[in-house]
Amino acid sequence: MMNEKHVISMLVDNEPGVLSRVAGLFSGRGYNIESLCVAETIDPDVSRITLVTRADPPILEQIEKQLNKLINVNKLRDLSGPESVQREMAMICVQARANNRAEILRIVDIFRCKVVDVGIEHYIIEVTGDEGKLMALINLLKPMGIKKIARTGVIALKREPG
Predict the structure, then answer these.
(1) Where are the alpha helices (DSSP H) in the chain?
(2) Torsions phi, psi of 101, nearest 5?
(3) Which positions ≥6 away from 156 have C-beta within 8 Å?
(4) Which pTM does this prediction carry?
(5) What domains appear along the chain, each with residue ranges and CATH number?
(6) What is the tens place of the pLDDT at every residue in 17-38?
């Protein structure tokens, strides 16, 4: 069976060492974390860890059971399906010479991005969206010369009813 991508969201105690224990659980069992995002919630004592991993259902179940055993994990949820909203942010530094500046700005407009920095021969573009949108933008900018990229990884929230 093919490993499916899963977005796991955890509410954890906002204390030193919690992230290390979560990451250690993955590395100790040979599971890979494809992306990881951690930030404080509205409650300063609680952080949300959002991570992406690939696993088939029995392995995912094992991962979730092991994570739930960690003392500092208060709530865990798989947010992989349509019941969640997922986004990722990226900043892309692209070569912007006189001959391609207008084309880059058209692409930025089409993708509803923002140019957040302008240099003599570069733009830094900020984009937010799902993985498909980010990959489509990256593929259009590649021929122009992407210098560097920084991505946040996926963040997600469960949809509210109604």
Answers:
(1) 18-28, 57-69, 101-110, 131-141
(2) -60, -45
(3) 7, 9, 50, 79, 84, 85, 86, 87
(4) 0.87
(5) 4-78 (3.30.70.260), 85-158 (3.30.70.1150)
(6) 999 999 999 988 888 999 999 9
